[in-house]
Write a structure and sequence with these properties.
The protein is α/β, with parallel strands linked by helices and 492 residues long. Helix content is 31%, strand content 28%. The chain is built from 15 helices and 25 strands. It has a seven-stranded mixed β-sheet. A six-stranded parallel β-sheet has the order 2-9-1-10-11-12, with helices on both faces. A four-stranded mixed β-sheet has the order 3-6-7-8, with helices on one face.
């Protein structure tokens, strides 16, 4: 099995996008290719067909390769919890919660075994791996315990690309500094440099490229222009880099940027709608008057609920809903909309019972056992009979408790009543289903409720699911990257 490794001079250099693009390029050329990232730290997760969790970026890369996502493509997933600890997921299953120092003491050997086993398994099914590193391969304080970068490259003897983000400035220093800090056997694997996110005139860069190649002896095999496509983000820092790209929109949707926001890739399909503006707001900002407000998923529901209450955003949401505003909560956001959240075992911190926003008649108990599974259901609202697919990832169990006198005031969203609820006015919605907006007809039906309130003409609901648009994005990105990247030496 051949392997290409992609490492970056910094975080957010473009490793995830480049990995996906190369997976699609090689797949189109007839390679049986798969992505791989030994260890990922991210709160955007995906549930595989067998109920295992992996980083969402690796799922996207698998789709780019034209294959089904497997847990072996991301054998270690760390999900930060905001208290200097992370949940450790190995081969798709949670195995513990630890701080950084304890993680390397308790899980380093186990983690490397999981990586080796996963690579061996993938080698029986694929003839090429495109491997993604994490952060920088030259963090000298943790290089001896780095499970993701050059340890994997050396294990696979992988031809390695070093990618640098020139948009941040200091690109040449980043490349030289990274190479200087690598061990000789690690540096020997770097066979090409890629300059990413270039906005300028290529001719003005040529003298710098010649200098870099002469100084390092490593060819610059690609200069990738800054790509404007909304690509699935790996962590919440990416949200800070997203600018407003639409000049004219008809609906404004705000998403609360919770401190521990997770699976905000749920909203990529909304951002793909030409008539929709999606804005992420801090709990400390003014809520304003959006056409809809979304409380997203969160890794730790209770601390983020407390943050909403302390910041005044919780009260603002309640007033907004009372005035007829549309509120949607997904997963942890759904739990926050309820009446109460109990954590008897202290899984998210201090054990206790916490009052929710009281906008939906549900009560949630946080438990140690996580639910992670793919789902396919049929909708009751906003339109009956629509097929809806998605996935669940949550540790809370929610119970609907509608008083007998109010049974007509609430309706279940799907044929599985446990997956979601909406009030009679169709203004407060909640669901455990991630990926709900990927379903084109359901998304448009929900948006048409908002458009009706604004007196706008309804959009057609007979549209394809977002996966088809995602395929177009992957093809577009791969075509652009292929035009600017010479992989000849990496495939010989």
């Amino acid at each position: 099995m051949k392997a290409i490794m992609i490492v970056g001079t910094t975080s957010h250099a473009g490793k995830s996008l480049l990995t996906a693009a190369i997976c699609r390029i090689l797949s189109r050329r007839g390679w049986r290719v798969a992505p791989f990232k030994g260890q990922n730290m991210a709160l955007n997760a995906y549930v595989t067909a067998n109920g295992g969790e992996i980083g969402y970026a690796q799922a996207v890369q698998a789709w780019a390769a034209g294959v089904v996502p497997w847990v072996e493509m991301n054998p270690i997933l760390l999900k930060p919890q905001g208290d200097m600890t992370s949940q450790v997921i190995i081969k798709g299953k949670p195995v513990g919660k630890v701080g950084a120092a304890e993680y390397y003491e308790q899980y380093f050997e186990l983690g490397w075994r999981a990586i080796e086993e996963s690579l061996q398994h993938l080698s029986t099914e694929f003839d090429m791996l495109v491997c993604e590193g994490a952060g920088s391969p030259a963090e000298i304080n943790i290089k001896h315990r780095d499970l993701t970068n050059m340890r994997v490259a050396k294990y696979l003897n992988a031809s390695t690309l070093l990618v640098v983000d020139i948009d941040r400035g200091g690109a040449f220093a980043h490349v030289i500094g990274t190479l200087e800090l690598l061990e000789p056997d690690e540096r020997a694997l770097i066979r090409g440099i890629v300059i990413n996110k270039f906005r300028g005139q290529r001719s003005l860069l040529e003298s710098g490229i010649r200098w870099l190649e002469e100084r390092t002896g490593i060819p610059v095999i690609g200069v990738i222009p800054y790509l404007e496509q909304i690509f699935p983000a790996e962590d919440s820092l990416d949200l800070l880099e997203r600018g407003t790209q639409k000049l004219q929109t008809e609906l404004n949707i705000s998403v609360i940027r919770l401190p521990r926001i997770s699976n905000f890739t749920d909203f990529d399909p909304l951002e793909s709608e030409p008539t929709i503006s999606v804005k992420y707001i801090s709990p400390k900002q003014e809520l304003g008057h959006p056409d809809a407000l979304i409380i997203p998923g969160t890794k730790t529901t209770i601390p983020d609920l407390i943050m909403l209450q302390k910041s005044g955003m919780a009260e603002a949401i309640q007033h907004y809903a009372a005035a007829g505003g549309t509120v949607l909560g997904i997963c942890g956001g759904y739990q926050i909309l309820g009446q109460m959240i109990a954590d008897p075992e202290g899984i998210e911190g201090q054990a206790g019972r916490y009052q929710g926003l009281g906008l939906l008649p549900i009560k949630t108990v946080i438990t140690g056992q996580k639910i992670a599974r793919q789902r396919q259901v049929t909708s009751h609202y906003p339109q009956t009979g629509l097929p809806v697919i998605g996935f669940e990832i949550h540790q809370g169990r929610s119970r609907i408790e509608i008083p007998p006198t109010e049974t007509e005031n609430y309706h279940t969203l799907f044929d599985d009543a446990n997956l979601g609820l909406v009030d009679r006015c169709l203004s407060v919605w909640g669901s455990y289903l991630h990926g709900i907006f990927d379903n084109g007809p359901w998304r448009r039906a929900w948006l048409n409720r908002l458009r009706q309130q604004r007196g706008l003409k309804s959009l057609p609901t007979g549209v394809a699911n977002y996966r088809e648009q995602r395929e177009h994005i992957l093809d577009s990105v791969a075509t652009e990257v292929e035009h600017h990247l010479d992989l000849t030496s990496f495939l010989s």
